[in-house]
Amino acid sequence: MRSRFTSVLAPTITRYLSLKEALGSAYMVERNVMAHLDAFLAAAGHDLDSEILEQWIKTRSQLASGVRRNWMRIVRNLCLYRRRTEPACFVPDPSKFPPHHQVLKPYIFQEAEIDRLLAETGQLRPANRSPLRRQNVLLGLVLLYTAGLRRGELLRLTVADCDLLEGTLLVRESKFHKSRLLPLSGDAIRAIKVLLQERREKQLPLSPDSPLLWNDYGGSGAYSGSGFGEAIHYLLRSSGIRTATGRLPRVHDFRHTFAVHALLRWYRTGRDVQAKLPALAAYMGHVSIVSTQHYLHLVDELASIASDRFQKRYGVLIKQPNGADTRGGRS
Fold first, then answer.
1. 134, 126 contact by CB (below 8 A)
2. Could you tell me if 215 and 136 are in contact, meaning their C-beta atoms sit under 8 angstroms apart?
3. What whole-number distance in Å separates Cα of residue 109 and Cα of residue 261?
4. Vertex 32, ends 285 and 30: CA angle to 5°?
5. In principle, which of 35, 60, 216, 307 could form an S-S bond with 129, CB 3.0–4.6 Å?
6. What is the torsion angle, in degrees rounded to the nearest 10, for the CA atoms of residue 36, residue 65, residue 293 and residue 138?
7. CB of 130 closer than 8 Å to CB of 215
8. Other residues' Cβ atoms within 10 Å of the Cβ of residue 59
9. pLDDT value of position 119
10. What does the pLDDT look like over 128-179, one tens digit per residue?
């Protein structure tokens, strides 16, 4: 149920959100931020000014610095909209926002580590409310790694989204409000078939709209993001996989790994990587290649393969100081 706004800013918030939603924005995060701000202003009985804004953001001190900065950016955008009709209204100064938090370096899994994680799912035991825990987590891992799904996309999948005859997966209304149809790997198709057959045999929910990764917690049948994350973290700990700083890799790191390993496969097989990048962007659900580049990290093996390819194609054009070309000949 949507929040009812009651503060002095309520009319402005309502108009602003209606405008953004009419333009096609879901604005769920923004709506949540404005609901918090509206409740604070209503309790204070005060309009927004610099002092009230500072008091409000202090109530969010448990959030990371970068998240608080984003919340204040959202409020500033609201105030800029308000200023169109109320020129004297308060607008936050971005120079006083909390600093950006440090972006974590993604962890790129080795292929051997993926194999260890898949094998480790065999140690998972069924629970009363999650009788197919092992099969669910196995399929989740396979789809994260072979399809590059975001965690939310994975957990929103339904049985109807899987077309095993065509070998495709429909990812509905994801980030950027885009849907996409993905060809599945053979491993993914086999894991889905095994899971659905187990559901039939155990007479568990199998209607088209039931979650693909089903459990009996929470009423909806779908895993929560934190619940699925805990299962992955258990596998990471039991497999002894940690980053260089000792932390556990994130679920989102599988998406980064998917992109890097796609590049590695193309380089190994001599494909035209630049020509393949638009396909990778579309597969990952990106609006443009610019977004995909965020996931393309120069790991050691990728750097080595790319360097070797460059050497083979253009090494004759590069001369050493002694006059030799890079292949060892003389000019």
1. yes
2. yes
3. 9
4. 55
5. 216
6. -70
7. yes
8. 10
9. 96
10. 889 999 999 999 999 999 999 999 999 999 999 999 999 999 998 766 667 8
Q: Find residue 222's DSSP bridge partners.
A: 214
Instruction: Identify the three-state secondary structure at position 306.
Output: helix
| 3-state secondary structure (DSSP) of residue 137 | helix
CA nearest neighbour of 142 among 126, 162, 160: 162
CA distances from 142 to 135, 168, 233, 270, 327 (A): 11, 14, 15, 25, 42
Q: List beta partners, residue 180.
A: 171
Write down the pLDDT at residue 330. Answer: 40
Reported as type and span, the H/E element at residue 313 is helix 300-314
Return the H-helix or E-strand segment holding 302: helix 300-314
Which residues participate in catalysis according to the annotation? 150, 175
Enter the tokens of residue 80.
């800029």
CB atoms within 10 A of CB 134: 18
Under DSSP, the state recorded for 164 is T
Element containing residue 110 per DSSP (H, E) = none
User: Which pair of tokens denotes residue 243?
Assistant: 């980053």
Is pLDDT of 312 > 80?
no
Rounded CA-CA distance 79/13 in Å is: 9
How would you class 247 by CB atoms within 10 Å of its CB: exposed for 0-12, middle for 13-18, buried for 19 or more? exposed
Closest CA to 228 of 110, 322, 140: 140
Per-residue model confidence (pLDDT) at position 326: 52
Is the predicted pLDDT of residue 42 greater than 60, yes or no?
yes
Q: What is the pTM of this model?
A: 0.68
Q: What is the mean pLDDT of the chain?
A: 88
